[in-house]
Amino acid sequence: MKILYATSEAVPFCKTGGLADVAGSLPPSLAAEGAEVAVVLPLYQQVRERFGSQLEFLCYDYVDLAWRHLYCGLFSLEKDGVTWYFLDNEQYFNRPELYGYADDGERFAFFSRAVVRMLGHMKFWPDVLHCNDWQAALIPVYLKDDGVREDRFLSIRTVLSIHNIEYQGRYNPYILGELFGLDAGWVEDGTLLMDGDLNLLKGAILCADAVNAVSPTYANELKMPYFAHRLDGIIRQCEYKLYGVLNGIDMNLYNPAEDPRITTNYSLENLAGKDEDKAALQKMMGLRQEPYTPILAVVSRLVSHKGLDLICEVLHDIMALPVQLVILGKGDRKYEEFFHWAAQQYNGRMAVSLDYNEELSMSIYSGADLLLMPSKSEPCGLSQMIAMRYGTVPIVRETGGLKDTVQAYEAQWDSGNGFSFANYASGDMLYVIREAVYLYKDYPDVFSRLRKRAMDCDFSWARSAKEYLRIYANVTGQHAALLESPPETEAAPAEAAPKAEETAVPETPAETAPEAAAAEAAAPAAPVEEPEKSEKKTAGAAKRKTAEKKSAAAPKKKKGAAK
Ligand code: GLC
Predict the structure, then answer these.
(1) Cys-Cys link to 420, which of 44, 116, 148, 408 (CB 3.0-4.6 A)?
(2) 68-79 and 56-65 strand pairing
(3) Which of 331, 327, 373, 317 is nearest to 351 (CA)?
């Protein structure tokens, strides 16, 4: 199976958000499962500056985009069993930022056009071209457009991953021919037209052979107007080819036992280092040195869908609890100003860094006790998984991937790996924050077991990579058995993929069955209860109900994990 993964950003080369983390770690995991994988991305200025000496120049060609005849260089680099291709055009990509320019539409139309036209220069002709978000959304459209004239393009199947449906790539329809080089038919038949605009993501959803949302719950949410930013009808229309595969994280990069970025390393068996990291964080952020006060952290872009309004509404009530609050992130001015102002009221108890700072974020994940993510919507969310890996217990709203990765603590079963609330309401959020803070203060042993359960969750990419391979098998008709025998592990029979998860036995009522989840995730996701409509109930009761039926690929427990 030959996979070409097209993305506008990937770690370690360039990053503005979670897409880069996924694009940096999923392709190597696919390769580890036995697929031949290449990734293609633009050669941005920052990639040239930081990785230029490692890049090999392969060739150049010209790419036609409407009336433009444009240079396109092809560079590559081998890393982690994957070939990373970079498309060079200095006019479009030799700029300080990745996005945010007036001609972004033209820049990424060029990227998409160039991916298709440069295929012949790459090491293989792909079976599947896996595109991500609006920046690569024209690829399935161009493949169909070119396929009319050149048969060779007809053999390629396409998969579209939606990391956030809010960003759709919307443009004035008059530029269709002039800028994108496409015939008016693409608008006239409605493929690219949405609410009077050209909508690149809509075109990709319709043209791709499979559409994937980055968590099972998000796949279901996208069928609802509240979450879909007007594309719910299109998503429902395409439900037959809709999947929801939960993202993973790079468990080696995020490993508290070996991470050089944190003050003191620690592990599930010996958590002493985490106390030192907490003291270091308090020092670093100007907080009082109080080892027994829980640190509640927010590491987030400061934008509305992250649910920051809820925090603003009850900030003083939160600060009335015996807690310290740390906020890291930048974004909308109203949140930046509010948090900056609030921190001054709570000197020594609340600290804010209005920055995007990878290093500080690691100090927070390792030094904090609780991570707050009250998102209005969250396609997957990676922070909660990273936090759990570092023993920082998440408090989340039950949406998207947050719902799929966090199972609420339930006292009577001593179960769960975090705290959650269903309704987008500050009072409900405050209720669970209070529950978490007092569990920490009054029942340290119980909190410590909860922390260890969170740390013990397996969010590695291996299972999700298998699910992607099943999607690729579905769209190409290639037999899944060929995909499911990773070279270095024992061979599995054709139907063995779901069974391969059998070691992950749910150990508490709050756990979901990963084997069922793995099987279901390869099929169109089943409808789940809409959080906003769910009746008022305790977070725990809500979780038990969803745990019984949800299709979520819950974190796999390592055998004998419960401590
Ligand atoms: C986007 C989403 C986030 C997701 C990430 C990777 O940034 O907002 O929830 O985790 O993409 O898929």
Answers:
(1) 408
(2) antiparallel
(3) 327
